[in-house]
Design goal:
By secondary structure, the chain is of the alpha+beta class. It is built from 15 helices and 22 strands. An 8-stranded antiparallel beta sheet has the order 13-12-9-10-11-14-21-19, with helices on both faces. Strands 3-2-1-4-5 form a 5-stranded parallel beta sheet. The chain is globular and about 60 Å long.
């Protein structure tokens, strides 16, 4: 259906897509802002087009400039990666109207699943367990109070159009609910231009477990097991692994079937992730569905020996998936650490600056997805993630050891990073034992002072999560 793909993204995910396209014999077009003129995705694409100033709103989030770049280079398809326009239904619709293939689900699927209230309704219809809560938007504090009294405290308010922890408040009594309702609504309006909230029962210290699914245009749906994403700070993932230490074969089968049923409910097409909360009794509840490739997709690729990005491209070309579900089993244990350019000592503040030295680990079972190099200048306009370190081994214990050794080999100078922070996590006895949940960093992990050198420049905020390339 297409011979050339424009990649509407930057950084390591742009490089990842370029590699997949090359293996399929597809030409690539890189778009870039003025801040990314020296970026690696620009160098390795077959063609490149500058689409504007550094600010995302005038470049990577400007759909008209991206469509113009596709038309001038005669690109027949656009891959949005993750973040930016990846879950923008209007952009997907514009692509269709211009006879450009959007490599992802349909605009209608993005809209339905991007609205968390609507997505919850669809999952209920598909028989997927959902967290007790409001039937749709809670329009006022009084409505929220009625629901909270019915299901019992604690409860959590969530933005209908939310992500990245914005527009979210945990409330343990009516006083907190009143205060939280107004704060969350205001925050949601500022972040997503939509103040609507819904309310759910708050599940104490669950695991955050997601199921990777893939669907094609021929009615075939498959799941690729789970990823445990419970090591988080401020609702942002830091470490992901598969299989989950919490998982049993029975639970995996149930969650996988639920995820596939949810995808089938809307005739889903392409790669997607169904996210769940799992309590200490191994009850699981639907949280949301991400209609794109995830940052942490390499964990699944390594564990199952698949190529999810190539599958995305093949599905977009109308090809039929040829997997057999019973054959999709873990061949390896895999763990990923997100390496961010952040000053951990200053509450994980994103930092910009020049990398004066960079050495990445290697060896059997070690993968590093990155788009930075020595002398590369990290711009202040985008997400702070600079690399993903992924390992695989026969057992989780072996993977933990391999990751610990790989982190010791990972050298970054010029800006502070989260590498020393990750080293400390992989020395913690509870994490080593697989005994952790979403509250791990807040309740059980005591961080030691970082041994990294200070940054060479003043930290600069990376901006709103909606403009970042890593929104998970």
């Amino acid at each position: 259906m297409f011979e050339k793909v424009l990649i509407a993204n930057r950084g390591e995910i742009a490089l990842r897509i370029i590699r997949a396209c090359k293996e399929l014999g597809i030409k690539t077009v890189a778009v870039y802002s003025e801040a990314d003129r020296d970026a690696l995705h620009v160098r390795f694409a077959d063609e490149d087009v500058c689409i504007g100033p550094p600010q995302p709103g005038q470049s990577y989030l400007d759909s008209s400039r991206i469509i113009a770049a596709a038309e001038v280079t005669n690109a027949g398809a656009i891959h949005p990666g993750y973040g930016f326009l990846a879950e923008n239904a209007d952009f997907a619709e514009i692509c269709e109207s211009c006879d450009i293939v959007f490599i992802g689900p349909t605009p209608d699927q993005i809209r339905q699943l991007g609205d968390k209230v609507r997505a919850k309704e669809l999952m209920k219809q598909a028989g997927v367990p959902v967290t007790p809560g409001s039937d749709g938007v809670v329009g006022s504090f009084a409505d929220a109070t009625d629901v909270a009294n019915e299901i019992g405290y604690p409860v959590i308010l969530k933005a209908v159009a939310g992500g990245g922890g914005k527009g979210m408040r945990v409330c343990r009594d009516m006083a907190e609910l009143e205060r939280g309702f107004h704060l969350a609504s205001t925050e949601a309006a500022n972040a997503f231009d939509n103040p609507d909230l819904y309310l759910e029962k708050f599940i104490e210290n669950p695991h955050h477990v997601e199921i990777q699914i893939m669907g094609d245009a021929h009615g075939n749906y498959f799941h690729f097991g789970e990823r445990d994403c419970s090591i988080q700070r401020r609702h942002q993932k830091l470490i992901e692994e598969t299989p989950s230490p919490l998982m049993t074969d029975e639970l995996r089968a149930k969650m996988g079937e639920a995820a596939v049923n949810g995808a089938r409910m809307v005739g889903y097409r392409g790669a997607g992730t169904v996210e769940f909360l799992v309590d200490r009794h191994r009850n699981f509840y639907f949280m949301e569905m991400n209609t794109r490739i995830q940052v942490e997709h390499p964990v699944t690729e390594e564990a199952f020996e698949v190529d999810l990005v190539k599958d995305q491209l093949l599905v977009a070309m109308g090809e039929k998936l040829t997997y057999r579900q019973k054959e999709l089993i873990h061949k390896w244990a895999s763990i990923e650490c997100r390496i961010n350019a952040e000053d951990v000592e200053k509450d994980f503040r994103p930092t910009a600056g020049k990398l004066t030295a960079l050495h990445v680990p290697g060896g059997p079972g070690v993968r590093v997805d990155r788009a930075v190099y020595t002398t590369y200048v990290i711009p202040p306009y985008y997400d702070s993630m600079i690399a993903k370190l992924i390992v695989r081994a026969r057992t989780r214990d072996q993977a933990v050891i391999k990751m610990r050794n790989a982190l010791d080999e990972f050298i970054v100078e010029g800006v502070p990073t989260t590498v020393p922070f990750h080293r400390q996590i992989f020395q913690h006895p509870d994490f080593i034992a697989g005994d952790y949940d979403i509250g791990f960093l807040d309740t059980r992990f005591k961080r030691k002072k970082s041994e990294e050198a200070p940054p060479v420049s003043e930290p600069v905020s990376s901006g709103d999560d909606k403009t970042a390339t890593t929104p998970d």
